[in-house]
Design brief:
By secondary structure, this protein is of the alpha+beta class. It has helices spanning 27-30, 33-42, 103-110, 123-132, 168-173, 225-235, 237-242, 256-261, 306-310, 327-333, 335-343, 367-377, 405-410, 454-468, and strands at 2-5, 21-23, 50-53, 74-75, 79-86, 89-96, 101-102, 140-146, 184-188, 193-197, 204-212, 215-220, 252-254, 266-271, 276-279, 284-289, 293-300, 347-349, 357-359, 412-416, 426-430, 436-437, 450-451, 476-477, 493-494. Probable histone demethylase that specifically demethylates 'Lys-9' and 'Lys-36' residues of histone H3, thereby playing a central role in histone code. Demethylation of Lys residue generates formaldehyde and succinate.
Length: 503
């Protein structure tokens, strides 16, 4: 069941804001994926930007079920989602954890007292608790886990191989983009979220909730997508100045209350286990998980998407953002416009801005093909494939080079391109001091390397503070060892201070 919440002076009274539709196809209707997408669009489902499908009972993507004990799954690097902000305007920083987890360990953490779903009366009550506590107790989210939970012999609606025109990227260019034309898994817990965004290149997406707690989705009809962009650009000015497509960083959280205040129509719907959600081109969406669950997702395309893809905004400030060359799609499906498009003279309108005529962006070099070729030529560097999902803080500041295990254990970097004026760009780097020091004078003969003595440095600094204390009598050393090398255990001395009334 879908819930529509529509607002706006021009929409009030007209009741023309599209609602999220729910489809219950028979197995015969369900068999052909592309045809059923076309059928739903013929009914106007795409106008809401999001649709729910309750698949037929005959469709079983995993016949063995979802006993966690029988699912051999390792989460390479879960992310900790730290949310900052207030009054319905937030920025979400995704901190990549250093240690991998098994699915069972993740489930135990999700069901622990700290992260378990709070008691609630209904979905609306849980939604209120989510927005009220969004900045407290940062959850973990196992996002962008490469793999599938579907059976290998599943031929109908197999998310890992949907066989749409997006496959031409692989056929014509030989490029595999993780999470875009391959499947990704997402394991969530209470309060883990996905921020406001459209899909990479404004593609379609499909999300199947295999098991577990529901997801709440928010969706803005594509015709109102520019309103959300305008609100975000005016609110998070610094981010917009740094990148005009910063919403693709997937860090911006805006509450329904703020959307209502700014007359931005939106819909809300809850996805339960066994249900499918489809997002449509240029359909902004966001949401959160109610508790421990597991979902599978990927992108796909249709001929209707091509015009969206040609005019999609591109993030140029991050090297890991997905960019797909539209050349093969224009050449195959819009041959009459191909020559003008190559010249940058393919004038027309964005599908959601019918009155605004402009030229579509000319073809761009397929950066991933270059990366693919360069990685084969220089095997010294390990280059990640294109990847879709949450924007991550890089552990080392360089995703292309693997750090030694000891350095990896002691380094972490958290980066955030913040939003509003009171949220500055945060860059936190914790690094272990060098274990050795060398002689700074080149004229003296080389001496053997000495171990850096953390204890002696700490003792000198503490003694300065100790002697500066305003006390005439010497203090008493409670423990004879003073400060020890293990900095996790500290030994202290005491002084008695006499303060005047004015102090």
């Amino acid at each position: 069941m879908s819930t529509r919440l529509s607002f706006g002076d021009d929409d009030a009274g007209t009741n023309n804001v599209p609602r999220i539709m729910t489809f219950r196809p028979s197995y015969e209707e369900f068999v052909n994926f592309a045809e059923y997408i076309d059928y739903m669009e013929s009914r106007g489902a795409h106008k809401a930007g999001l649709v729910k499908i309750i698949p037929p009972v005959e469709w079983k993507p995993r016949r063995s079920g979802y006993d966690i004990e029988n699912i051999n799954m390792t989460i390479p690097a879960p992310i900790c989602q730290v949310v900052t902000g207030a009054h319905g305007l937030y920025q979400q920083i995704n901190i990549q954890q250093r240690r991998q987890m098994t699915l069972r360990q993740f489930m135990e953490k999700a069901n622990s007292e700290l992260h378990q779903t709070p008691k609630h009366f209904d979905y609306d009550d849980l939604e209120r608790k989510y927005w009220k506590n969004i900045t407290y107790i940062s959850p973990l989210y196992a996002a962008d886990v490469k793999g599938t939970l579907s059976d290998e012999d599943l031929d109908v609606w197999n998310i890992g191989r949907l066989d749409t025109i997006l496959n031409l990227v692989n056929t014509d260019y030989g490029i595999e983009i993780d999470g875009v034309n391959t499947a990704y898994l997402y394991f969530g817990m209470w309060k883990s979220s996905f921020a406001w965004h459209t899909e990479d290149m404004d593609l379609y997406s499909i999300n199947y909730l295999h098991f577990g707690a529901p997801k709440t989705w928010y969706a803005i009809p594509p015709r109102y997508g520019r309103r959300l962009e305008k609100l975000a650009n005016e609110t998070f000015v610094e981010n917009f100045q740094e990148c005009n497509a910063y919403l693709r960083h997937k860090m911006t959280m805006i509450s329904p209350k703020v959307l209502r205040q700014h007359n931005i129509p939106y819909n809300k719907i809850t996805q339960e286990a066994g249900e499918i959600m489809i997002t449509f081109p240029f359909g902004y969406h966001a949401g959160f998980n109610h508790g421990f669950n597991g979902a599978e997702s990927t992108n796909f395309a249709s001929k209707r998407w091509i015009e969206y893809g040609k005019r999609a905004s591109i993030c140029k400030c991050r090297s890991d953002m997905v960019k797909i060359s539209m050349e093969t799609f224009v050449r195959r499906f819009q041959p009459e416009r191909y020559d003008n498009w190559l010249k940058g003279e393919d004038y027309g309108c964005h599908p959601e801005e019918p009155g605004k005529i402009c030229a579509a962006a000319p073809p761009t070099i397929n950066e991933y093909k270059i990366i693919e070729e360069s990685s084969q030529a220089t095997k010294a560097k390990h280059v990640h494939r294109q990847k879709r999902g949450c924007s991550l803080a890089d552990v080392n500041g360089n995703s292309d080079v693997e750090a030694p295990a000891e350095e990896e254990e002691d380094k972490i970097s958290v980066s955030s391109r913040s939003s509003c004026s009171n949220l500055k760009q945060a860059v936190v780097k914790l690094r272990k001091l060098p274990s050795t020091v060398t002689d700074a004078q080149p004229s003296t003969p080389a001496s053997p390397k000495e171990k850096y003595d953390f204890n002696s440095v700490a003792v000198v600094r503490v003694k300065r503070l100790w002697n500066a204390l305003p006390c005439e009598k010497p203090g008493t050393n409670l423990l004879p060892n003073g400060i020890v090398k293990n900095t996790k255990r500290m030994r202290f001395q005491t002084k008695v201070l006499t303060l005047d009334d004015e102090d």
